[in-house]
């Protein structure tokens, strides 16, 4: 079986040409990688550059040397998993140890550049202006400063102002208003080299940077104030110790995790969401499994006519793309004009608040998830039922056992063992079933009185997703920290599943 | 056949059919409702299952046509549904093809080529498989944001970026295909080896033709997964014209802009092809579902 032992460049006629082609291809790949690595390095992303280099080097080595023939088959798949699952998982955890958030979004360089861009108007440089009928900017003589005129707006950048020889015909204020955008974008260079920009509606003036960078990293303001960088918290501080936004990203160690553990306003919703996530995953698993198994068993009954038609129709919820079904339910459950409440109010006079009452919202989530998930189990269990010996049922019937007794004494013990790993996988899937929450409720209704926006139907995953990508106050650092907790739980479930499957496989091969 | 008393058998038959019919009515309710709503007038109106004054307005808008109402007002389509469907299919097809290539080659090596750390890598894949990429969206976003600054067509808001990130969804498929390859008679590749075939040639000319059915299963499974994928796509695609259907469809049902009728027509239009594809493939999928996950 071991064919890789005999691998060597097989001497067939096209081999030489094939090799040439391979090396040309490898060369092209290497060049493309070098381009990207160089770009990343220039963009001040050394970590990315190193990782890209490792990937490129691996490709060139594995496909250049025939020693690594076997790895050529394995590498692409493993690399995809490593780069787009393992790496992001590690990276997400790493972000959990920083203060990366909407207030600390940039790097120190960018924050520094932001402050250095702040301009102040230079005193005494202000000059009133008027717009001429030809679209030029005219500065009338002002004290001992001579009158100046520029070429028409937009003809150059900056517009060189030259001494005006005669007084041009000027427009009224209305024309200035009409050309406001162009005027605001314009810069004017005076004969003595000053750069003027628009300052209010009636004047242009020169401006200069407010802050200058000192050798020790402190920013010195034109009025003598100082901004001192604080690398501990990632903010510039005034001499009075006040934080100045924007901040930059810095590592904060275990701070986020400490907040989760100690801060009431953060811990409470997280504990609540954590418990709900477990409850949701467990109930979803039990409900979909029971409904699916029940249906599979009924459909398997030999006296039932039309089982094939039932089966096709019952599988439909699984066949329709989930995101469409979930959105359909979002509309049907709508409290005011959803069809479900219409029917309920006509029949029983009820109008449940599906989206504002926490308990009802959770019930709705479970109803929809059961609807979505039972066909998976119905299909699987139908397969497992084929393996249950029919003789057992005959024997049971002779002994006078009813259908329920048959199910619990014969069917269930037979179908449960092969289902266990799939049940665990199903639990893990629902534990992280954030599509359902994001599309159906967006986590709502909100849990009142929390520091972070948290909803009572939020799962841990959707909670972190919203924390990172909601418009109000993105907090990547905290999201990363909570994701780390999710990874830990998922890891434990995954390992349990793995062990169960190993045991099952061992039992099977022993048989 | 099991011997049962006649009267109790009839009672049970009625019970079974009755239960199934009631259950089916509940299950089919959303489908029927959506069909009815897609023909109703307006976006808020309520009414009976059979609309009194059926209109094709929502369907015209979903198909991308302007619709002129009886009173002469012209309605333009709110969203490019067909473009979204096209995006979804494009991304889904390319990503599934990529997944197929990556998972078959890997599975072949795992099934037939002994190498150091084989079992270790396989077991790791099985565990990694439980970590959905959706949980690491923050990092995936950051990676493509950075990459896009150097290579713009690989940045955020580009389809290649989404396709590339989808290639990671191969872990389970490697196991499925490996299970199939394991069942291929070793005598076949022994014979090929004796005739001087390289492992690549054995893979290309023996294993691939033999495993077309399982490859079809994997392709369809991957395709359906990608069509349904929401979290990663919603983070990577922000422009309306770039969105996939799963991301775009949500736009219909915002509290501020609630287009229930338009959504119903768009949902049926875009959901139908995928549903039909699934029902056709269903028979083959079942074996893939259990085999891949259980075979060790």
Structural summary, described in words:
The complex is a heterodimer of chains A (511) and B (296). Chain A has 511 residues and is an alpha+beta fold. Chain A folds into four domains: 81 residues, Up-down Bundle (Methane Monooxygenase Hydroxylase, Chain G, domain 1); 47 residues, no CATH class; 91 residues, Beta Barrel (Periplasmic binding protein-like II), CATH 2.40.430.10; 253 residues, Orthogonal Bundle (MetI-like fold), CATH 1.10.3720. Chain A is 57% helix and 10% strand. Chain A contains 17 helices and 15 strands. In chain A, the strands form three sheets. In chain A, strands 1, 2, 6, 8, 9 and 10 form a six-stranded mixed beta sheet that branches. In chain A, strands 11-12-13-14-15 form a five-stranded antiparallel beta sheet, with helices on one face. The radius of gyration of chain A is 35 Å and the shape is elongated. Chain A starts with 14 loop residues before the first helix and ends with a helix. The N terminus of chain A is likely disordered. With 296 residues, chain B is an all-alpha fold. Chain B has two domains: 70 residues, no CATH class; 204 residues, Orthogonal Bundle (MetI-like fold), CATH 1.10.3720. Chain B is built from 13 helices and two strands, in the order ααββααααααααααα. In chain B, strands 1-2 form a two-stranded antiparallel sheet. The two termini of chain B are 36 Å apart. At the A-B interface, α1, α3, α9, α10 and α12 of A face α1, α3, α4, α5 and α8 of B.
Helix and strand layout, with pairings?
The complex is a heterodimer of chains A (511) and B (296).
Chain A: H1 15-42, H2 46-64, H3 69-95, H4 108-116, E1 119-121, E2 127-128, E3 130-131, E4 136-139, E5 148-152, E6 159-160, E7 162-163, H5 173-178, H6 180-185, E8 187-189, E9 195-199, E10 203-209, E11 211-213, E12 219-221, E13 226-230, E14 235-237, E15 243-244, H7 255-262, H8 264-300, H9 307-319, H10 322-332, H11 339-348, H12 358-385, H13 390-398, H14 403-431, H15 434-440, H16 460-469, H17 476-510
Parallel strand pairs in A: 6-8
Antiparallel strand pairs in A: 1-10, 2-10, 3-4, 4-5, 5-7, 8-9, 9-10, 11-12, 12-13, 13-14, 14-15
Helix pairs in contact in A: 1-2, 2-3, 3-17, 7-8, 8-12, 8-14, 9-12, 10-15, 14-17, 15-16, 16-17
Chain B: H1 6-38, H2 57-62, E1 67-68, E2 74-75, H3 81-112, H4 118-128, H5 137-150, H6 159-166, H7 171-182, H8 186-194, H9 199-210, H10 212-228, H11 231-236, H12 245-248, H13 260-294
Antiparallel strand pairs in B: 1-2
Helix pairs in contact in B: 1-13, 3-6, 3-7, 3-10, 7-13, 10-13
